[in-house]
């Protein structure tokens, strides 16, 4: 089912100045904008980018597709001194918040839809080698046999399609402290016309249980809780089961879970889709224009992944 970056800021300028100060001398052949007499950037300035970042790219869980793409970027762009630091979505956004609060340099694995783009002024680093691929779509996947076993749920899931702005409303509310279920319920209540499109002609059920799997990214927490509320509205008892990406796909393929609305294709979950495509049903795109890449605060004066090189 169905994720680019650059710029270095005042923090890098400060780090560069301190580097020169620590040497006890200035470069008389360097112009005021950091270029030498031939107009080329000095080696010290170039090195300052990696040093300011501590040669670290802050990532999320190790199994995520964006992490595999980021590791490929390190190799393709010959960022040999860089380490891709695995953590979690929450840890990554916490590190991003701390860096921005102090106007420090940071580069993170990123994707949208994500609430961080609403809260912070961020940018993707250009990816001239195309390591992170083009825009992606988020797909809905169902287990084999769901259409026969739960035709009402299958129809709703097949009809489901919304926008990044729709998802963003729920993500921002959650980030601001609202419980995911409450934020999803509020969105459903405020968007009856869209919900009606998904449930048009669908009969009610009497308490059947359906299990929805998700990878616990903010985007998928928003979408899964929302569609759970829609299914509850026609009588389902919905169980939400968060898990890592590989387990999510396996759960749909082996029938431990009934469906997910969290498949990023063609790149992020492409390897999983290749492994399980014969054992799942692709109900198509539920959100278009998703993207992955390397992201930095807009105040950083770099624009491309290539700028991360020494």
Automatic annotation (TrEMBL):
One of its GO terms (cellular component) is ATP-binding cassette (ABC) transporter complex. The keyword Heme does not apply. GO terms for biological process: choline transport; glycine betaine transport. It is found in: Cell membrane. One of its GO terms (molecular function) is carnitine transmembrane transporter activity. Residues 1-21 form the signal peptide. InterPro entries: ABC_Gly_betaine_transp_sub-bd. Keywords: Cell membrane, Membrane, Signal, Transport. Gene3D superfamilies: Dipeptide-binding Protein, Domain 3, Glycine betaine-binding periplasmic protein, domain 2. SUPFAM superfamilies: Periplasmic binding protein-like II. PROSITE patterns: PROKAR_LIPOPROTEIN. It comes from the Bacteria. Its main location: membrane. The keyword Cell membrane applies. Residues 47-190, 209-309 form the ABC-type glycine betaine transport system substrate-binding domain. PANTHER family: GLYCINE BETAINE/PROLINE BETAINE TRANSPORT SYSTEM PERMEASE PROTEIN PROW (PTHR47737), GLYCINE BETAINE_PROLINE BETAINE TRANSPORT SYSTEM PERMEASE PROTEIN PROW (PTHR47737:SF1). This is Glycine/betaine ABC transporter.
């Amino acid at each position: 089912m169905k994720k680019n970056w650059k710029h270095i800021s005042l923090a890098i300028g400060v780090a560069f100045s301190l580097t020169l100060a620590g040497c006890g001398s200035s470069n008389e052949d360097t112009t005021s904008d950091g270029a030498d007499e031939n107009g080329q950037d000095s080696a010290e300035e170039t090195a300052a980018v990696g040093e300011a970042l501590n040669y670290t790219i802050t990532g999320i869980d190790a199994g995520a597709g964006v992490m595999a793409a980021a590791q490929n970027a390190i190799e393709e762009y010959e960022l040999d001194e860089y380490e891709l630091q695995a953590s979690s979505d929450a840890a990554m956004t916490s590190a991003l918040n701390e860096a921005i609060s102090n106007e420090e340099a940071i580069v993170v694995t990123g994707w949208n839809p994500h609430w961080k783009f609403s809260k912070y002024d961020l940018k993707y680093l250009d990816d001239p080698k195309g390591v992170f691929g083009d825009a992606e779509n988020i797909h809905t996947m169902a287990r084999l046999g769901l259409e026969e076993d739960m035709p009402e749920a299958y129809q709703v899931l097949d009809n489901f399609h919304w926008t990044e702005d729709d998802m963003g409303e729920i993500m921002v509310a959650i980030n601001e402290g609202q419980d995911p279920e409450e934020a999803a319920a509020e969105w459903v209540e405020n968007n009856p016309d869209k919900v009606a499109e998904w449930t048009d002609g669908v009969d009610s059920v009497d308490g059947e249980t359906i299990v929805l799997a998700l990878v616990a990214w903010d985007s998928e927490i928003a979408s899964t809780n929302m569609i759970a509320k829609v299914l509850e509205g026609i009588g389902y008892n919905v169980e939400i089961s968060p898990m890592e990406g590989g387990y999510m796909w396996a759960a749909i393929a082996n029938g431990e879970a009934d469906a997910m609305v969290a498949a990023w294709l063609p790149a992020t979950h492409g390897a999983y889709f290749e492994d399980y495509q014969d054992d799942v049903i692709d109900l198509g795109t539920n959100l278009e224009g998703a993207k992955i890449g390397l992201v930095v605060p807009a105040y950083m004066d770099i624009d491309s992944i290539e700028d991360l090189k020494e």
